[in-house]
Design brief:
Blueprint (H helix, E strand, L loop, with lengths): L1 E5 L3 H13 L3 E5 L2 H10 L4 E4 L8 H10 L5 E6 L4 H10 L3 E4 L4 H15 L7 E4 L2 E4 L4 E4 L2 E2 L4 H12 L7 H8 L10 H13 L6 E3 L3 E3 L1
Helix pairs in contact: 6-8
Length: 218
């Protein structure tokens, strides 16, 4: 799951991005509305955590442009403007959710996860299962035949994407796009290495198949 944080307070942006990464998300951070729009044009983000009072291009205008473009990216406004009229205005602009500052971090993580589930068509359930695998996307746990898999955040994200594909092939490029941030080098073999570690933890019989030159299928 990929998240863009648009927040002009750099220390807060860094802390939010760090916390979301620890929760298992691939996160990029920008500090003004123009940079946010540039990133949104380049990458397919699941959720945008958007401060309203951004320089260069106001956060409200960022939301308007996303809505006008029929973008599938969900918008969570994270702002100090917490009066009822502010929340109503933000939601009317096209935000999918609204969280005031200061905030409790577990609530932010929960809201981001909820928006990600709702962004899928049809909406994704919090529990994903197939071939003895059971993934809880809320508690971030994964088991196979009742055995805890003890996955790293990146391994968990890759397995979740494969489960969400429901038997369809997922290319290495798509995995890199959705589970890694913008700083990932596409030539490092990161997907291949992660997939090797994931397969080892899943054990036998193998449930992930490689289609050479195409991608991976569960």
């Amino acid at each position: 799951m990929r998240v863009l944080v648009a927040e002009d307070e750099r220390d807060l942006a860094r802390l939010v991005a760090l916390g979301l990464r620890r929760a298992g998300f691939a996160v990029d951070a920008v500090h003004d509305g123009e940079a946010a729009l540039e990133r949104l044009d380049l990458y397919a983000y699941d959720v945008l955590v958007l401060d309203r009072d951004l320089p260069r291009v106001h956060g409200d205008e960022v939301a308007r442009r996303l809505v006008a473009a029929a973008s599938p990216t969900r918008i969570l406004m994270l702002t100090a403007a917490t009066a009822v009229e502010d929340r109503v205005e933000g939601l009317d602009l096209g935000a999918d959710d609204y969280l005031g500052k200061p905030f409790e971090f577990p609530e932010l993580v929960s809201r981001v996860r909820a928006l990600r589930r709702r962004s899928a068509r049809p909406a994704l359930p919090p529990l994903l299962g197939r071939d003895g695998l059971l993934v809880d996307t809320v508690r971030r746990t994964a088991t196979r035949d009742g055995r805890d898999l003890d996955l790293s955040p990146k391994e968990f994200s890759v397995l979740q994407i494969l489960l969400e594909a429901e038997g369809a092939v997922v290319s290495a490029e798509e995995l890199l796009e959705r589970a890694w941030d913008a700083h990932a080098d596409p030539f490092t073999g990161a997907v291949r290495v992660c997939m090797s570690k994931l397969r080892a933890k899943l054990g036998e019989p193998a449930v992930i198949r490689t289609l050479q030159g195409v991608g991976y299928v569960l």
